Amino acid sequence: MILRLVWENIKFRPMRTLLSILLIGVPVMLILTLVGVSRGFMEESQQRTRGVGADIIVRPPGSSFTTGSTAPIPEAAVAKLGQMPHVAQSLGVVQALTGKLFNTINGIDYPAFKRMSGGFTFVEGDDAHAFLQPNDILVDASFAAEQRPKLHVGSQTKLLNTMWHVTGIVESGKLGRVFAQIGELQNLTQAPGHVSQIYLKLDDQKNTQAVMDALDKLIPGYEIYTIQDWLDLTSVDQIPAVGIFVKVIIGIGVFTGLIVVSLSMYMAVLQRTREIGILKSLGATKSFVMSLILWEAGAMGLGGTVAGIALSFASKEALKQFVPASLPQAIVPDWWYIVLGIALGSAFLGAIYPGMIAVRQDPIEALSYE
Amino acid sequence: MNSADSIIRIRNLRKVYKTGRVAVEALRGVDLDVPKGEFLSVVGPSGSGKSTLFHIVGGLTPPTAGDVVVGGVDVGKVSDAKRTELRRTSVSFVFQKFNLLPNLSARDNIRTALYIAGRPMDHFEKELRNVLELLGIEGRLDHRPTEMSGGEQQRVAIARALATGPAILLADEPTGNLDSTNSLAVLNLLRDLNQRLGQTILMITHNAEAAAFGHRTVHMRDGQLAESPG
Fold first, then answer.
1. Which of A91, A158, B126, B187 is 20 to 30 Å from the Cα of B201, by its Cα?
2. Which residues partner with A96 through β-bridges?
């Protein structure tokens, strides 16, 4: 019966209920979107790293996994490492930030890259015309879709203060989103003869540890990882700033939800003063009145969670439409329970004060309330 | 009348309301006995204290002084929780403004009272058949208050009040918001309920004609019982 009372109360003032649910839903959506973007960004980045087809990655001394837009490794090392026992192929890559959100432009030796990764799948253009001129670039489909106007084969685009000519649109999933010839990028970044990192493909993965040990001796101080270790390092959990940012957004979500529910329930208590008086005249206990308020707040928290989850799908579609390369958003079902807890927690907390007001109402005054 | 037989026994009842620094003495030493099964009318002008008497007997507010024993419970000496229990188990109200929950159907209004009282809610129509027949609202149970006339709403309010089987029915100006036809119908209903079911009723009214439906009428003026002909 108590649920029926709550349900009828919710139905009786649909606009107030709807607004409250939406106002709780927005911070829930923000949390899910932020977590989804962090995860989507990292998952796509990891997928692209896997797509290179390497077994080991070598990075400059003192580099962190969030950096990579400089090229301090002598290019001669690429050939040298490629001659090590059990190393089937080495690939040097120059990376530079494009200046467009988080996207990098990757300088590659195209034939070597094709051998290691298996080459690109072209959405537009073809392999034969990929890098005929120094300023030719390939871009992946997400990057092409994100630019305004959208990029196609034959388009011109400005990156690193240079006009580039798009000669191919490729499927996402290998190394990066924008590819230029390595020499051209070395010149532009004023690092001729240097690379940002080196990928190694082994003759057999069983030899990974032996090669890692040999690399440690050969180039002490360099950051050397198996690809799997590198992928583990580049998870969202490994980036402290993301964790703090998510916590801040959660805090804002809790605070917003708390205020929204508190205001909403305060209004509800005011609007229902007479009804609370009626319930008290029928012998309703304080706990009964409080439970009504809390159940209603809980229902709004639940509704807000559902609305927030639905809105997170909408935000994913919106981001996919406008910034598919820079802010890829993953749907994060494992966070649905967390946001449900956050929404319910803030709803219950927010309902306590209005609930106390309802409980303390004098039944005679409440019954005479107009 | 032996006061030991009374379902309501009031002695030297005083009630003072404080508004800021001003103290208003609403009841100034009321003595009253209501035996079980009586239909008592309390009449008096506005401000005479009859509503205050009604609220104290119903356990909605405690007295300032005096003894008010309702169904064996001295409402002045028990906690707020006990007075709440009194309202849940022994006393029911019928108000001038009906006071039905507007978002619920008539059936759910009655079920709510049963739920709060901890009584079985299902099949109440069967168990309360006599009352519902007497009230003539069997066909209106699925309607909300806004879909009913004032007379129908008041009948639903009476059904809700009786559903929990209270020892005492307190009716505060039950015809105050009704036209003469519906007023007559409701007063006849109260009298029938009293006669057929032996329901104790304490009715407050400022209308002498309405008061005449009771067995006995007491008059209130300036917070005191001015006359007690019974």
1. B126
2. A105
Domain boundaries defined on chain A: 2-43+239-367, 61-221
Would you tell me how many other CB atoms lie within 10 Å of the CB of residue A349?
Answer: 15
Q: Say yes or no for a CB contact (<8 Å) between B87 and A278.
A: no
Closest-CA residue of chain B to A271: B102
Q: Measured between alpha carbons, how far is residue B198 from residues B39, B70, B159 in Å? A: 9, 17, 15
Domain extents for chain B? 36-64+75-227
C-alpha to C-alpha distances, A303 to A263, A344, A350, B20, nearest whole angstrom:
16, 10, 15, 44
Interface test with B, best of A5, A281, A291 (most B CBs within 10 A): A281
Secondary structure class of A199 (helix, strand, coil): strand
Residue B115 CA to residue B46 CA, distance in Å, equals 35
What single-letter amino acid sits at B110?
I
Its pTM stands at 0.79
pLDDT above 80 for B126: no
Residue bearing tokens 């935000």: A315
Report ipTM for this prediction.
0.91
pLDDT at A87: 95
Which of B60, B84, B111 faces A364 most closely, judged by CB atoms? B60
User: Does the distance separating the beta carbons of A285 and B84 come in below 8 Å?
Assistant: yes
Query: What band does A284 get if pLDDT is binned at 50, 70 and 90?
Result: very high
A345, burial (CB in 10 Å: exposed 0-12, middle 13-18, buried 19+):
middle
Over residues B136-182, the pLDDT tens digits come to: 888 889 999 999 999 899 999 999 998 888 999 999 999 988 888 88
* Cβ-contact B32, B218 below 8 angstroms: yes
Q: Which residues pair with B137 in a beta bridge?
A: none
Tokens at residue A200, please? 């190694």
CATH code for residues B36-64+75-227 = 3.40.50.300
Distance CA A199, CA A222 (A): 13
* Listed residue (A144, A145, A146) closest to A164, CA to CA: A144
Question: How close, in Å, is residue A356 to chain B by CA atoms?
Answer: 16
How far is C-alpha B1 from the geometric centre of its chain's CA atoms? 22
Tokens read off for A2: 């108590």
Q: How far apart are CA B94 and CA A280, in angstroms?
A: 13
